[in-house]
Amino acid sequence: MLRLSFSNHDVYRLLEVEREKLFEGSNDLHTPRKKSTQEILTKYKFKGDAAAAAADAKNKLLERQEKLKQMEEQSAELESEAENFASLAQQIKKNVENKWWKL
C-alpha cells in the first residue's frame, strides 16, 4: 500500500495554487468590490422601470417552468427505459442460466 505524506505547509500551498487558478483574471482576490446601483441596473438591463423588471422576471420564470417540465418528461422517459432494460437483462440472464445447465 502506497502512503503519501504531506506537511501542512504543502497542503496550504496546494490550496493557494488552486485558489489562484479559480480566481484567475480577477483583480482583487480577497474583497469583493461594492457595485453601484447603476452598475447593477445596467448589468441586468432594468433601466429603473419596475414594470419591465417584473415582466422580465415573469418571462424568466415561465422559461424555467418550461425547462423543468421538459426535464420531468425526459426523466420519466429515462425511468421507463431503465425499467425495460432491467427487465430485458433479467430475461437474458434466465435464458443464459437455463441453457448453461442444459449443456
Structural commentary:
This protein has 3 helices and no strands. It is mainly α and 103 residues long. Helices cover 74% and strands 0% of the residues.
In round numbers, the mean pLDDT is 80
Sheet/helix structural class: mainly alpha
Regions with pLDDT < 50 over 5+ consecutive residues? none
Distance between the terminal alpha carbons, to the nearest Å?
A: 44 Å
Strand content: under 5%
Globally, the shape reads flat
Short description:
This protein has 103 residues and is mostly helical. Helix content is 74%, strand content 0%. It has helices at residues 8-22, 37-44, 50-102.
Secondary-structure blueprint:
Blueprint: H1 8-22, H2 37-44, H3 50-102
List keywords for this structure.
103 residues, mainly alpha, 3 helices
